[in-house]
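go over this:
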Amino acid sequence: MRILSKACAMVAAVAFVATAPSAQAEDVARNKCQAIGQNGFQKLSDRADHGLDIVTASCRVATGPVDGGVITAQYFWEWDKNAATLIYGGGVVRKGDAILVYQYTEGTITPIMTDGKATGYSSGGKGRWPIATGAAASLAGKTFTWISKATPTGDYETVWTAD
């Protein structure tokens, strides 16, 4: 389970690498993230391989209207065997007078299998921007799709693509 916790932290830390799902979609931000603080898997006693992972992350926004901004985020994941479902996720992007609050409304983490063993994880889901000011004001009230992938350095990358 410790490996799952580390994988969750890397994936959830929020650094997303993705391809736009359609020609009309707009990549709003590409985030490079890392888990911070004491993140850890907590085994639940109701059944085998069931647990909760609470991840706190910090990210740097690399593109879009808040390029150079800093994200503080937190994610709660429910693990069942080798896969996880998002219970809660969200955070705040800050850059100058721009504030962008985001909320993940759904998400999953699934293993990447090689020869029957988990060799990595990928995650994705949907979200919304309930508050956006300054350079990010045009995103207020809009929804997005997110994709996240662990990087070779142990951090993760996330891409937000506007719907």
Notes: The chain has one helix and nine strands. The radius of gyration is 15 Å.
